[in-house]
Amino acid sequence: MGVERVQDIASATSEDTIPVEFIRSENEQPGITTVPGTVLECPTIDFSDPDEEKLLKQIFEASTDWGMYQIVNHDISNEAIAKLQAVGKDFFELPQEEKEVYAKDPNSKSVEGYGTFLQKELEGKKGWVDHLFHKIWPPSAINYCFWPKNPASYREANEEYAKNLHKVVEKLFKLLSLGLGLEAQELKKAVGGDDLVYLLKINYYPPCPRPDLALGVVAHTDMSALTILVPNDVQGLQACRDGQWYDVKYIPNALVIHIGDQMEVMSNGMYKAVLHRTTVSKDKTRISWPVFLEPPPDHIIGPHPKLVNDKKNPPKYKTKKYSEYVYNKLNKIPQ
């Protein structure tokens, strides 16, 4: 028998109980720690605004102050998003043995594949979620053995979505670069240029009998430079603001942007990686599709040389290979 999947545990759990390894400590339980009745209105930015100065200012402020924002009018059609979501949902609704074909190899260093547990959690706690990881760009980095063959339109929907993301990615990096006083292309170049990896993850959070006690994904910042996420319509994303946890408002077809650790490092702390987590629902399945924009594994990342100097602005972060950063983070080793 392989790894136990949360989807199976959820199907087998009927009463008001969940296995003890899913019950969070009191300082993490969403029933206790969520600010009730308050939905966080993190910045919503109209990406089609012809006033580039205004857009630049909005992105800069949201990235320094919040580390999370939602962009609307981004030119990715509702249909392309709906197709991505439909094929992902269909995959997770396949019989278990069909999904296990894509299970990640426990000995592999790669995160790609179908799986359940990702990082070492303190006290052996577990998140109420199964996932599928695979790269969707660049073509040289794609490993199609991790792309489901069923549903048949899976590949087409994902390729279409990746193609649609390019314009958004280029524009975001350009605005973030200009916001720091760098040339338009410098930030993207620093993170790997055309070798920038788009890593898709599907998070599948089955209904949970005790959503007040469990978390889908524990509080974390993303390792990526940027994350671009589309959720389904089930509330679950929470952000930490001034030490408090709030639900983030769901906006249909918006792209949720997270500043990730590498962006914080490259900007030498100007841009802030957002601390966020995911709650689960008692009777609905939540699904989300983050795409992590990250450097290639051997790429070396540190504070951008133009943003640091010895006297006024010394580097606040170490410079290292991205693969080393990932290893440390997943194994809870200080950076």
From TrEMBL:
Cross-referenced PROSITE patterns: FE2OG_OXY
Record keywords: Dioxygenase, Flavonoid biosynthesis, Iron, Metal-binding, Oxidoreductase, Vitamin C
Gene3D superfamilies: B-lactam Antibiotic, Isopenicillin N Synthase, Chain
Record-level Gene Ontology MF annotations: dioxygenase activity; L-ascorbic acid binding; metal ion binding
GO BP field: flavonoid biosynthetic process; pigment biosynthetic process
Domain Fe2OG dioxygenase span(s) in chain numbering: 195-295
Pfam family, one: DIOX_N
Record SUPFAM superfamilies: Clavaminate synthase-like
Entry-linked InterPro entries: DIOX_N, IPNS-like_FE2OG_OXY, IPNS-like_sf, Iron_ascorbate_oxido_reductase, Oxoglu/Fe-dep_dioxygenase_dom
Co-factor(s): L-ascorbate
Family named by the database record: Belongs to the iron/ascorbate-dependent oxidoreductase family.
Entry-linked PANTHER family: 2-OXOGLUTARATE (2OG) AND FE(II)-DEPENDENT OXYGENASE SUPERFAMILY PROTEIN-RELATED (PTHR47990)
Protein name (record): Flavonol synthase
